[in-house]
Every structure is written in C-alpha cells, then in structure tokens.
Amino acid sequence: MQITVVGGGIIGCAAAWRLAQGGARVTVCDRGRMGGEARWAGAGMLAPGGEFGEDSRWGRLGVESLALYPGFVAELEAATGRRIDFRVCGAVEIAGEAKEMERRVAAQRRMGIRVEEMGEGRWWYPDEAVVNPRDVVAALRAAGEGLGVECREGVEVTRGEGEVTVWATGAWGPGAYPVKGHLIRYDLAPGSLPRIIRKGHYYVLQRATGETIAGADMERVGFDRTLREAAVEEIRGAAEEMVPKLRGVGVVEAWNGFRPGSESGEPVVGRRGESGEWDAYGHFRNGILLAPVTARLLCDGILPSGGRG
C-alpha cells in the first residue's frame, strides 16, 4: 500500500513511522521543513489533567496516550540510538474556584486521571510528564527513514496522492484554524524545578538541560507571527507568581507558534467518507500528547488488521 502523509509535524511523523512498521510504503511531504511549526514551538507538557475537564472520548484517549508514552519513547530510542528528553515528573495544579475544581476533578477521575488533593488549593497529578518535542520528531524521522519512509521538504500537496493520503496539516487543515500562543524561556540549574506547575492556562516546566519554559496565551489572530511584548510580559508575570525563584532570573528567549484548532473543539481523525483520504488535525494544545494514540487510530483504520498481521 502506498501512503502519502501530508504534514511533517509530530502527528504526521508518528503516523508515518507506525504505518511503515505495518508494511506500507510511506512518503511524508511538508510545505516547509519537517517539524517546523507547532512541534518546534511546543513546550512538551504531557498533561491530560491540565487539558481535559469534562469526561469525553478524547480525554480518555489522552489518558491512554500518556500511558503509551514511556514505551513509545523507549522504542524510538532503541530504533535510532537517539536520546529523548522525557520525564514523568507529575504536575501541581494551583486551583481557582474550589467548587469548580472539585467538579473538574470528579470528571477527570471518571476518565482515569489520577489526581490527589494536596491542601491549600493545590492538586497533585502524579502521572503527568514532559518531553522535548524536537527530540521526538527528530527520532520519528530517523526511525521512519530507517524503514524506508521518504521525507520530502518544501513540497506542497493540494490533492490526494497514492492509494491513501493522510492530511496531518495542523493549523492548515481543511477545517482547522490557528490559535497563536506565546512561550518564554528561562535558564535555571538542571533539576531545580522537578514538577510541572500550572494555574489556569499558564504553566511552567523544566527540561533536562535546565531550560525552563513558561506559557501560554491563546489568540485567534490568523497566521500573524508578530511577537507581542504584552503577551510575553503577561506570561512572565504569571510564571513568576507561580514559581517565585524565577524573579530576577531574566527571560532569555520568547517565541510563538500556531496550535491547530477545529470548529468542533476536538481533533479530527478519521476517513473522509469512502475515499482514500484521512484527516488527522485539530489537536489544539495536545498534539504532542496525542501523537501515539492518533498514530494507532490511523493504523487501525488504514491497514489490514491495523498493521498487526
């Protein structure tokens, strides 16, 4: 089976790798460079508890995808010899209104999200993790190429190609729209922030290098890449309130990216009618988290016996 994956971000690369493992001949086409959009910009928080406050199919799939991550990373590292910065560290949520948080926690527990009350308006999510998405996409590309996946950069595809086409085009999907988000970086000593800290839609996390990432706002302004200083200052203020040790450290980098929103508010993953075209976009803030489970869903739908023989 010949499959063209349009979009070389984390969703497209994960799908390509798994489809190739299932015996398909896969080409990945990207209009720019592989992993150059949301994956490049993303902080890498793997946090169903921070993203899903209502019992839903995608909330449950988020829990499943988080559970898949340790094996997913280990398999990629073994296949490529590359180290991926991945750590199950847990997250502390600083709650807002108490009754709303209790309602949210009850819904999350029904989805299988583990959460414990810490007292003083704080809640502990022990299973949540961080990963460097740039590491993941680089490893996915290498693992795919090792199985014969052809990666073509600077190629724009406007119609279906091959027996099957997977449209993993992020914010450029046919029913998607961009949600701009700013992030900032501090440099701290490695290990100095052992947990994710979040409040509302703001968060702070640390990578193994000591790079400490804070984000993120949400703006529907089209594909405007302007770095808005007011947004940077808003995130800085929220981050330094949550993590006082950041005060006086200084922001060393600020950037933004486009999350792929969808009109339904949920990812769009599935076949277009009876055609050979499949959609895999609209993951919003959760493309990195949902990559393993999205790749599985696509393989289950596209390949005979899900590619498992």
Would you give an account of this structure?
- By secondary structure, the chain is of the alpha/beta class.
- An 8-stranded mixed beta sheet has the order 6-7-5-12-13-14-11-15. A 6-stranded mixed beta sheet has the order 9-2-1-10-17-16, with helices on one face.
- It is built from 8 helices and 17 strands.
- The longest helix has 24 residues.
Strand order of the largest sheet: 6-7-5-12-13-14-11-15
List the total number of helices.
Answer: 8
Which overall shape is indicated by the principal axes computed on the Cα atoms? globular
Mean pLDDT: 94
Unreliable segments of 5+ consecutive residues: none
Radius of gyration: 19 Å
Work out the strand percent. Answer: 25-35%
Question: Helix and strand layout, with pairings?
Answer:
Layout lengths: L1 E5 L3 H12 L3 E6 L7 H4 L3 E2 L1 H4 L5 H24 L5 E3 L2 E4 L3 H14 L4 E4 L2 E4 L3 E3 L1 H14 L3 E4 L10 E4 L8 E12 L8 E4 L2 E5 L4 E5 L13 H14 L10 E10 L5 E4 L5 E5 L5 H16 L7
Parallel strand pairs: 1-2, 1-10, 2-9, 5-12, 10-17
Antiparallel strand pairs: 3-8, 4-8, 5-7, 6-7, 11-14, 11-15, 12-13, 13-14, 16-17
Helix pairs in contact: 1-6, 1-8, 4-6, 4-8
